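Quick bug: Ribonuclease H output formatted oddly.
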Amino acid sequence: MTDTRQAVTIYTDGACRGNPGPGGWGVLLVSGRHEKALKGFEAVTTNNRMELMAAIMALRELKRPCRVALWTDSEYLRKGITEWIHNWIKRDWKTASRQPVRNAELWRELLEETHRHEIAWHWVKGHSGHPGNERADALANEAIDEHRARA
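Here's what came back:
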């Protein structure tokens, strides 16, 4: 049987001015010759929350199941969703030291979004000149700058 799912490459990034502080997330979705940019802002947040929001919003944007290559510069995001989450679930959303998992509500949202897609999670070093990552970073920072200009 042939896999008819659309192939999509996603680049995500989160940014925060202060931690916590005003933050933004940026996403670049690429499929064939088509590109779509997304960005969002939160007044008081953390960098990790923005990294998670970028991935959640990117996957939410896909209207049907896809084959996804998702690129992030966040080991927190990549390792969290591919390695750590399995034990968090087994321990009822507690860490190995029995503390509540930070950002558990966002991890749950992300996990829900992943069920529809076949996702390969990739890490890229941030600020290393990778075009997709640089664009996602720029979008995240634009979201912060645009909100600050209006405030």
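Actually, after a second look the formatting is fine. The mean pLDDT is 96. Closing.
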